[in-house]
Amino acid sequence: MSTSLATPAQLLPLELVDKCIGSKIHIIMKNDKEITGILLGFDDYVNMVLEDVTEFESTPEGRLITKLDQILLNGNNITMLVPGGDGPEV
């Protein structure tokens, strides 16, 4: 009889991202940009396709907000994912 150290409730990072497909996600990028949108899909490198995207960029002049229909994000530039997040506080 063997015992496993992993519990059935354990959730791996890519499994969590997979559960977010079809729902809103807030992404914080390495370059001071934050993005919200609906996650359509991703790959093993966490490159992501989002739709109904809002991009928030902090500039010396203030916050720049850009709306996009669809975007492909490079996973190397992602710092943090927030499932169900509404974006940065204004």
Account of the protein in words:
There is one protein chain. With 90 residues, the chain is mainly beta. Helices cover 8% and strands 51% of the residues. The chain is built from one helix and five strands; from the N terminus they run αβββββ. A five-stranded antiparallel beta sheet has the order 4-3-2-1-5, with no helix packed on it. It is globular. The N and C termini lie far apart (56 Å). The relative contact order is 0.26.
Write the layout of secondary structure elements.
Blueprint: H1 13-19, E1 24-29, E2 33-42, E3 48-59, E4 62-73, E5 78-83
Antiparallel strand pairs: 1-2, 1-5, 2-3, 3-4
Q: Report strand order across the widest sheet.
A: 4-3-2-1-5
Cα-to-Cα separation, first versus last residue:
56 Å
Q: What profile does the largest beta sheet have?
A: 5 strands, antiparallel
How much is the average pLDDT?
A: 88
- Roughly how many Å is the radius of gyration? 16 Å
What is the element string, with H for helices and E for strands? HEEEEE
User: Into which percentage range does the β-strand content fall?
Assistant: over 45%
Helix content: under 10%
Strand runs, count: 5
What structural category characterises the helix and strand content?
Answer: mainly beta
- Approximate shape: globular
Task: List segments where confidence is low: pLDDT < 50 over at least 5 consecutive residues.
Answer: none
Q: Count of helical segments?
A: 1
